[in-house]
Amino acid sequence: MRSYHRAAIAIAVCYLMYPPWNTQKQAIDPSMPIRDWYQVATFSSSSECRARSFELLRQMDGQIAHSDSYNEDEQRRLRADAQCIEENDPRLRTTQVPKPD
Predict the structure, then answer these.
(1) How far apart are CA 92 and CA 83, in angstroms?
(2) What is the spatial distance between Cα 6 and Cα 101, in angstroms, rounded to a whole number?
(3) Rounded Cα distance, 12 and 83, in Å
(4) Strands (E), 1-101
(5) Nearest Cα to Cα of residue 50 among 23, 74, 20, 86
(6) Cα distance between residue 96 and residue 31, in whole Å
(7) Are strands 14-18 and 38-43 parallel, antiparallel or unpaired?
(8) Which of 16, 39, 65, 93 is 20 to 30 Å apart from 75, CA to CA?
């Protein structure tokens, strides 16, 4: 009798996210908690997120360029700071659950 092992396929949803504007600093602030970042798009894998992130952020540039508050330097920084974050990343949680002793 043959024994077959099934591989568990986990679908890891991944979000393309960029940091928020910090009104006190008057700049994009990547040091703010990831849970406060903006979700740009959702992907079925981190590799798909990374592959499509540049394209999507360029499209966003085109849309934002037509707004009154467009700042080209900040847009370049936004692209540089954008990240693909998996849905199970603990930094996305709004509250940290204390570890039991």
Answers:
(1) 13
(2) 35
(3) 15
(4) 14-18, 21-22, 27-28, 38-43, 83-86
(5) 86
(6) 18
(7) antiparallel
(8) 93
Residues whose CB is less than 8 angstroms from the CB of residue 59 and which lie 6 or more positions away in sequence, other chains included: none
Neighbours of 51 (CB within 10 A): 12
Over the stretch 44-96, which tens digit does the pLDDT of each residue have? 999 999 988 888 877 776 665 555 555 667 777 777 888 999 999 999 886 55
Alpha helix positions (H), 1-101: 46-64, 72-81
Residue 7 has pLDDT above 50, yes or no: no
**90 vs 99: CA distance, rounded Å:** 13
